[in-house]
Amino acid sequence: MDISSQPLQDIIEKAKEGNQMAFSTLLDRFWNEVYNFQLGRTKNENDAEDITIQTFSKAFDKIHTYDPTYEFKTWLFTISKNIHVDLLRKRKRNILEHNSFGNQEVIKKVLDDAPTAEDQLIKEQNLASLLRHIKNLKPHYREVINLRYFQELSYAAIAEQLGEPINNVKVKLLRAKKLLAEMITGQ
Known about the structure:
Structural class: mainly alpha
Distance between the termini: 22 Å
Largest sheet: none
Mean pLDDT: 80
Order of helices and strands: HHHHHHHHH
Number of strands: 0
Low-confidence stretches: 99-114
CATH topology of the largest domain: Rna Polymerase Sigma Factor, Chain: A
């Protein structure tokens, strides 16, 4: 059964149990709304995309705290709004302090799950055609695809190399795979 056709609360419960398809379904279902919400706030595509990635990263990390008496989209927007406010404060603080060093996060050791449908589609494509499609992705998506599928690094190794939290890497990979699959299938 296609998980995306299930009621939202069932998908959220599966995500709380760690089901990667549920996470992917939630990402697909709410990405555009969160992105457009942030694009309206930031007026900058790169900032909107970065904040959206961080929103899903934090939401997936804290999914067990979601209270079903509230709308899931409202919960996501609240997380997204708080990340944007934090980003603005950080930028203001950096400007005031003229200081560019940041805190390093501890990288969690996380086991990689079995390949998803997007992974299978990527593997089945002709390499030359695949590389052409990859070149059309934004640079940060190209980078995570390269590190994961061509250099075969684990999520933890990619997170360490990019200096980002592991959940950000997972969300970037989910989004990159979805965009790549759409390019390949011509959707």
